[in-house]
Amino acid sequence: MKRDDERALARRDESGATEKTEPRGADGASSPMVRFSRVTKRYGSLTVLDELDFEVARNEKVAIIGPSGSGKSTLLRVLMTLDPLTSGMIEVDGEPLTHMRRNGALVPASLKHLRAVRSKIGMVFQSFNLFPHMTALDNTIEAPMHVLGMSRKEATERAKDLLSLVGLADKCGHYPSQLSGGQQQRVAIARALAMRPKVMLFDEVTSALDPELCGEVLNVIRRLGEEHNLTMLMVTHQMGFARDFADRVCFFSQGKIIEQGPPQEFFSAPKHERTRQFLRAVREAL
C-alpha cells in the first residue's frame, strides 16, 4: 500500500459515500501542498536557486519578492517543470514531481508522471501568451478539451463560468487584439483555472500593465484568493498588494530566502539588513 503522504486517501462515511481526505505525513499532520527539498538550479556557472528548502501549506497565499535575478521567477518555472532542476526534489500534493517511486526507490520522473502531477498546477505569465487567432472562449476551452479530454460542451460551460468569474462574460467572442491588456490577462487567468489546478502561480502578471489595468487584474486575484481553496504563489513588485493579499511574504536574494513572515510583521519590522535595504529602495522609487 502506498504511504499516506503519497496520495489522498478515501474513507467511507456512514452513508457509504467516498470522502477524500488530505495527504498526511507520518506524524498525522497535513502535508504541505508544495515542498522544495535542497533544490538547486544552475545555468552554467551561475547558481540561481541555491539548495532551497521551501514549503507552502494547503490554501496558503505566498507573495515572493526580491531584486531582479534573485531566483523568484526561476522558482515558479522549475515548479511548473519549464526548467529542469540541477539537483534536489520537488513534491506537489504529497507526490514527488521531479521524481517517482519505482520498486521502492526514487528515480527521475517519466514524462507521463510529470504531466500527471503538473496537471495540479496552473501558471499565469507576465506576457499573456494567448492564441491570437482564437477568441477568449476558444483560448479557455483548448487545454481542457485536448489535455483533460473534456467534451466541447462541458469545456464551454466551464469556460463561460470562468470568464464570468473574471468579469468577462460579455467578451467570450472577442479576439485578443480586441481586448485591453488587463482583459487579456484575465482571460489568461480563466484559461489557467479551466484546468482545475490546486496550485496557482502568478509571475509578475501586472508588470506589463498600466496602473488602472493593474488594479483590474489584482482585484480578480484577490477575489480568487477569498472565494476559492487555491494554494497561490505570486512573484510581484506590488508591495501594497503583497501586504494585503498574502498570508506570508518571502524575500529572495541570491537564490535563497533571506527573510519571510506574515505581511504586517515583514513590512513593519524587517529583521535582515538586506530586506531593509530592498524595501527602502522600493519606497524611494515610488
From TrEMBL:
Protein's recorded name: Ectoine/hydroxyectoine ABC transporter ATP-binding protein EhuA
Compositional bias annotation for Basic and acidic residues: 1-25
Family statement drawn from the similarity comment of this UniProt entry: Belongs to the ABC transporter superfamily.
Top-level division of the source organism's lineage: Bacteria
Molecular function in Gene Ontology: ABC-type amino acid transporter activity; ATP binding; ATP hydrolysis activity
Topology in the lipid bilayer: Peripheral membrane protein
Entry-linked InterPro entries: AAA+_ATPase, ABC_ATPase_HisP-typ, ABC_transporter-like_ATP-bd, ABC_transporter-like_CS, Ectoine_EhuA, MetN_ABC_transporter-like, P-loop_NTPase
Gene transcribed to yield this protein: ehuA
A Pfam short name: ABC_tran
Cell compartments where the protein resides: Cell membrane
Record-annotated ABC transporter domain positions: 34-279
GO-annotated cellular components: plasma membrane
UniProt keyword annotation of Transmembrane present: no
Record's keyword annotation contains Cell membrane: yes
Region spans: Disordered: 1-33
Alphabetized UniProt keyword annotations: Amino-acid transport, ATP-binding, Cell inner membrane, Cell membrane, Membrane, Nucleotide-binding, Transport
NCBIfam families (alphabetical): ectoine_ehuA
Species classification: Bacteria, Pseudomonadati, Pseudomonadota, Betaproteobacteria, Burkholderiales
